UniProtKB/TrEMBL annotation:
Species this protein is from: Nocardia jiangxiensis
Annotated protein name in UniProt: Glucose 1-dehydrogenase
Residue stretches making up the Ketoreductase domain: 18-199
InterPro entries reported in the protein's UniProt record: KR_dom, NAD(P)-bd_dom_sf, SDR_fam
EC nos: 1.1.1.47
Recorded GO MF terms: glucose 1-dehydrogenase [NAD(P)+] activity
Family listed: Belongs to the short-chain dehydrogenases/reductases (SDR) family.
Length: 271
């Protein structure tokens, strides 16, 4: 690529002139996504219910970021976040539906109310977000929506039935939206991280079901860092992924490929 190539600026500012809203941006994956988008040139509204940490992240990113209190189950909060984006930066053309909660319980003890609560946040929160940005994205000539699902949206996880069901739901929300919103130049993709080193993943809810056995690590030999996920989101948010929509993108260190066959496992099997 030469210095006169019109794509040269993309090397350092691939998201220049992009305006994003990131839900659940106060910590963990969401904060890493906000930082990466700003580093790549975007202007970002960070939304969360954790006001002090959310404001701190926005302030650390300078004039390219702003904070909005955002409960993703509340339509008015979404409207306020969109209006803040429009008033501060312009019409949003990136939406990252990252806000989510995790819940661990045996299936027989998981109540309909547990399922309903996780659906309201993890799945319907994404629906409300997409609805909220639809008009401004159309006005901007299109955009990119990234719904943060999970490997639990494709495979079951013991003790996490409500979480897996809600993540499977937001996967299909993303695919359905991708089909219908393509006419407006709006792309919609879901991403599916395996376990990521974040406060939520290290909480008691996950510790109750996560195996401490290092042999259960994916083929790449480690769990993901928030920055790994942020890099994938930044790619899907930008113009270099302009022909990608309606897809599920796994970022799991090779977990979906299968399991390693260790010498220890072989000895145990022969017994």
């Amino acid at each position: 690529m030469t210095a006169t190539d019109p794509r040269a600026h993309l090397q350092h500012n691939p998201l220049r002139h992009k305006i994003a809203i990131v839900s659940g941006g106060a910590r963990g994956i969401g904060a890493a996504i906000a930082r990466r988008l700003v580093a790549d040139g975007a202007e970002v509204v960070i939304g969360d219910v954790l006001d002090n940490p959310g404001r701190a992240v926005a302030e650390s990113l300078g004039p390219q970021a702003a904070y909005a209190h955002l409960d993703v189950t509340e339509h008015q909060d979404w409207r306020a976040a969109v209006e803040l984006a429009r008033a501060t930066f312009g019409n949003p053309n990136i939406l990252v539906c990252n806000a989510g909660v995790m819940f661990s319980s045996p299936f027989e003890k998981t109540t309909p109310e547990d399922f309903r609560r996780l659906f309201e946040i993890n799945a319907l929160g994404a629906v409300q977000g997409i609805h909220a940005v639809l008009d401004p994205m159309r006005a901007a000539g299109g955009g990119s929506v990234v719904v943060v699902s999970s490997v639990g949206g494709a495979v079951g996880i013991e003790g996490m039935s409500a979480y897996c069901a809600s993540k499977a739901a937001n996967t299909m929300i993303a695919r359905s939206a991708a089909i219908e919103l393509s006419q407006y130049g709006i792309r919609v993709n879901s991403i599916h991280p395996s376990r990521v080193d974040t406060p939520m993943s290290n909480s008691d809810a996950v510790a109750a079901v996560a195996s401490p056995d290092t042999s259960d690590l994916p083929p790449l030999g480690r769990i993901a860092e928030p920055e790994d996920v942020a890099a994938l989101v930044a790619f899907l948010a930008g113009d270099e992924s302009s022909f990608i929509t309606g897809d599920q993108h796994f970022i799991d260190g090779g977990r979906q490929a299968g399991y390693k066959y260790s010498a220890t496992a072989a000895r145990d099997f022969r017994r």
